[in-house]
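*Target chain*
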Amino acid sequence: MDDQKLIFMEVVVALSPTHPTAERTAARVSPWRTVPGVPRWARWAAHGAALVNVPSGLWRIGLACGLAFGLADSELRALHAPGWGSLYLVGLSALAEVFGFLALGLVQPWGETWPRWVPLVRGRRVPVLAATVPAALGSLITTVYGVLFVYTNFHSQIDAAPWAKVLIQVLYAPVVLWGPLLAAVTVHYHRRRSAKAAGRAI
């Protein structure tokens, strides 16, 4: 009877939230959680960077499907949509969202440890520079992209209804935030990972 009580107590302790085994189990169950030490602003910034392309992406996909959204027929013909140009519009939307999604790696575990589906390096620590250098370059490119959007928005001539021009501005406006949001999360990631590495060295 005493042995049964002992086994029962061991199971209870192992399943308690503060027990290391429970923490490892939670980590396996929730691989997309925010890692400890990430402040709320960084989490929101990373998710914002991942989602800024969604409005404009949905608009492009709509064009690919033949929805004019107030654009003149000449604009759709120039885009070859619907048609082979639809592949470009959908592919551009998907690619932009994939790049945006990578920002989540700066606040989630898969940005610190290579996921299991990555061959050769799975389970190993992600070098700090291997994440921060591409992220820094990405923030620079997306910032330039946002500036170019603002410039072309004021200088381009689009054959469309007035409300359609406003719609384009509204849907593309979040893209301007992509670069600054990604840059802020990248700086935080570098500082946080560098601090952890210094702590392990000590």
Residues 128-155 form the longest helix (28 residues). The CA atoms of residues 87 and 105 lie 28 Å apart.
